[in-house]
Automatic annotation (TrEMBL):
Gene Ontology molecular functions: alanine racemase activity; pyridoxal phosphate binding
Taxonomic path: Bacteria, Bacillati, Actinomycetota, Actinomycetes, Micrococcales
Catalyzed chemical reaction(s): L-alanine = D-alanine
Residue sites binding substrate per the record: 142, 322
Xref: PROSITE patterns: ALANINE_RACEMASE
Entry's Gene Ontology BP terms: D-alanine biosynthetic process; peptidoglycan biosynthetic process
SMART domains: Ala_racemase_C (SM01005)
Task of the protein: Catalyzes the interconversion of L-alanine and D-alanine. May also act on other amino acids.
Family: Belongs to the alanine racemase family.
Known EC number: 5.1.1.1
Modified residues (N6-(pyridoxal phosphate)lysine): 38
Protein name: Alanine racemase
Catalytic-site annotation from UniProt: 38, 273
UniProt xrefs under InterPro entries: Ala_racemase (IPR000821), Ala_racemase/Decarboxylase_C (IPR009006), Ala_racemase_C (IPR011079), Ala_racemase_N (IPR001608), Ala_racemase_pyridoxalP-BS (IPR020622), PLP-binding_barrel (IPR029066)
Length: 400
């Protein structure tokens, strides 16, 4: 269609992000929403998405790495930010100076944060001392303080807090998304960890455990805040067929491209690498310049995955290549330059990222985070656009 649009484009609707956050915030209230914008906001663009999420009612942002938190501060976002996955040699002092809250997963990290906090205090950083969230491993066996180490960590944290060297803002953990039984066991482990923290004299204002899946289904998991990633992007956290539409959520990302070639071929024509697929009739093939380098999984080969061409759902045929896929449009009239929607909001007739994920044997999270670097990102919508950059201001009190 329009030749002014990029050849390949991921369009991110910031109003959909804000509206998904506000839908989830209403559902989980009085718990607050920590909007998870790690991995470039699941491929959607960290800074604009963070602003839209705050406009939609999130009170805090969550990221994995400190670098991701610094990127948000660099853009002038002054909301509270929590980062929880650290380089073993991370320098915490600059993060503390900027009021970036630090997830702590070991005694060693706690000591290093305290030292960095002292340095930030000596440098008269307005945001010092450090604000930390202690993370307990309740059964994911990944990040987080091991249960046997927890009493030592909370005791030391209480001492450091009493000395004014840091503030324990939160205690948190993460579910393994396994089963109701495992969820219940993790919740019980979290309760024990909270009791131990309380016995040590800690009064964390923010207890948080749930991500999208439990936040949407299990009120007992919500505590003071929930950490929402996938739901905010309008994709489903559930593997049981519950769609984002069932949850009242709208996919924010649309991946589109323009047809670059159209060819009429006879029956029994081999298509793409290895001729894994052959035409069984005369048909029209169109070439779409989205391959596995752009986020179309190679595992979608032969899966029946479809794209939207001129309002019609049409199958990808033959091997998914690095730069392109072939789509069989039958006798439909398609021209070079016509728009193809690879995934988007199913309400428009397009397949969803969740549907493509299902076909390729993966999850929607992986589809959106792996949209490739040569795909242009375009942000549309008003949400968060009015938020002016406001410099390196440290966040104030706990408000989630
Ligand atoms: C990624 C992540 C989340 C968000 O999970 P979703 O399933 O996308 O809601 C929450 N908490 C932690 C610790 C995470 O790593």
């Amino acid at each position: 269609m329009s030749a002014t649009r990029p050849l390949r484009e991921a369009i991110v609707d910031l109003d959909a992000i804000a509206s998904n956050v506000s839908t989830i915030a209403a559902r989980v209230a009085p718990a607050g929403v920590i909007a998870v914008v790690k991995a470039n906001a699941y491929g959607h663009g960290a800074v604009p998405v963070a602003r839209a999420a705050l406009a939609g009612g999130a009170s805090r942002l969550g990221v994995a790495d400190l670098d991701e938190a610094h990127e948000l501060r660099d853009a002038g976002i002054d909301a509270p930010i929590l980062a929880w996955l650290h380089d073993p040699v991370a320098d915490f002092a600059p993060a503390i100076a900027r009021g970036i809250e630090i997830g702590v997963s070991s005694l060693d990290q706690l000591e290093r944060v305290a030292q960095a906090s002292d340095a930030a205090t000596d440098a008269a950083a307005p945001a010092a001392p450090a604000r930390v969230h202690l993370k307990i491993d309740t059964g994911l066996s990944r990040n987080g303080v091991a249960p046997e180490e927890w009493p030592a960590v909370v005791a030391r944290a209480a001492d450091l807090e009493a000395e004014g060297r840091l503030v324990v803002v939160g205690v948190f953990s993460h579910f393994a998304n396994t089963s109701r039984e495992v969820d219940a066991a993790q919740l019980a482990a979290f309760e024990r960890a909270l009791a131990a923290a309380d016995a040590a004299g800690l009064r964390p204002a923010l207890r948080h455990l749930a991500s999208s899946e439990q936040a949407l289904r299990d009120p007992s998991s919500r505590y003071d805040a929930v950490r929402i990633g996938i739901g905010m992007y309008g994709l489903t956290p559930f593997g049981d067929g519950t769609t984002s539409a069932d949850l009242g959520l709208t996919p924010a990302m649309t991946l589109r491209a323009r047809v670059v070639a159209v060819r009429r071929v006879p029956g029994d024509t081999g298509v793409s690498y290895g001729h894994l697929w052959r035409t069984d009739r005369p048909t029209t093939l169109v070439l779409v310049p989205i391959g596995y380098a752009d986020g179309m999984p190679r595992h979608a080969t032969g899966s029946g995955a479809e794209v939207l061409v001129g309002g019609q759902r049409r199958p990808i045929v033959g091997r998914v290549a690095m730069d392109q896929v072939v789509v069989d449009v039958g006798d439909q009239a398609v021209e070079i330059g016509d728009e193809v929607v690879v995934f988007g909001d199913p309400a428009t007739g397009a397949p969803s990222a969740d549907e493509l994920a299902e076909a390729a044997g993966t999850i929607g999270y992986e589809i959106v985070t792996r949209v490739g670097a040569r795909v242009a990102r375009t942000h549309v919508g008003e949400a968060g656009g009015a938020v002016a950059p406001s410099g390196d201001v440290a966040p104030g009190g706990v408000d989630a």
